[in-house]
Amino acid sequence: MTANDIEKTTYIIPINMVLSPNKQCVLVDILHKYGRLEFDELATLLCISLDRLKALLKREDYFNEDEATKLVQYFCICCGE
User: Fold this and answer.
1) Does the domain formed by 3-80 have CATH 1.25.40?
2) What is the pLDDT of residue 49?
3) pLDDT tens-place string over residues 12-59
């Protein structure tokens, strides 16, 4: 799975799901706990730095709409596997 694969996948995602910092943090936690990626791999897939991902987990930062959309798309893909 690459960033290109995520961009080619189309989902209808409610904007409140994408922009909620708490929901973003929960999705990252779930992907890390049940997914096959470590945090550094997830950061690479989402095209963000590991420091940015760690800041999200500490609720010191949150993803913009594009970054959050990639996160939710990857989450949907993982749930479908």
Assistant:
1) no
2) 95
3) 556 566 678 888 999 899 888 888 889 999 999 889 999 999 999 999
Cβ neighbours around 14 below 10 Å, total: 9
Q: Where are the alpha helices (DSSP H) in 9-59?
A: 15-19, 21-34, 39-45, 50-57
C-alpha dist (Å) from residue 39 to 18, 22, 35, 59, 65 = 19, 17, 10, 15, 20
Please report, as a single letter, which amino acid is at residue 80. Answer: G
The SS3 assignment for 7 reads helix
Per-residue exposure over 25-46, b if at least 16 CB sit within 10 Å of its own CB, e if not? bebbeebbeebebeeeebbbbb
pLDDT over 80 (residue 73): yes
